[in-house]
Structure of Tetraspanin:
Amino acid sequence: LKCGMRTTKCQLLVTSLCVMLLGLSIATLSTVTHYGLHFTLISNVSLDSNAYRVIHHTAFYFGICLSMTLILAALLSSAATVRESQCLTAMGFFCFALAFCGLIPAACWRYTHSTEVEDSMMDVYDFVYEEVRRNTSSFRRHELTAIHEAFLCCGKHSPFGDTTNVENKTCPPGQVQDEGQ
């Protein structure tokens, strides 16, 4: 019986360690995504009417809250295992329940709004591109050049066919031939 209890405690401690690593990795991913060049570039350029900035910040804060909940649950579970405390065990399970209840709406949102992030990013790009196409002295040209360099893209196909001037001025050298990519 004693050997079985030790084995169970070891399994619970290893599980708590894995949950803690999961929480740390979610926090790291949220931070890298929030402060990464690609995402901050689009977020800084986006208009107030565009939904991307709201999605960008919401995803970051949701990820940080989820990671902190998982880390707290892992710490409580570890302490409950070592001290054999029913109160700490209940608090750990409560934190796991909170994390699970937070993931359900996130999964539903992801399923029902599957293309919203991509569409809002493309709306930002289209806005900046059209601003540069209409007014070549615009400060948006620097933003468009930064987008082209960050995403390794170069322009887009226009039904009007007058995009080559924009690509020549905003695409990194060597990518002008990849126009529309």
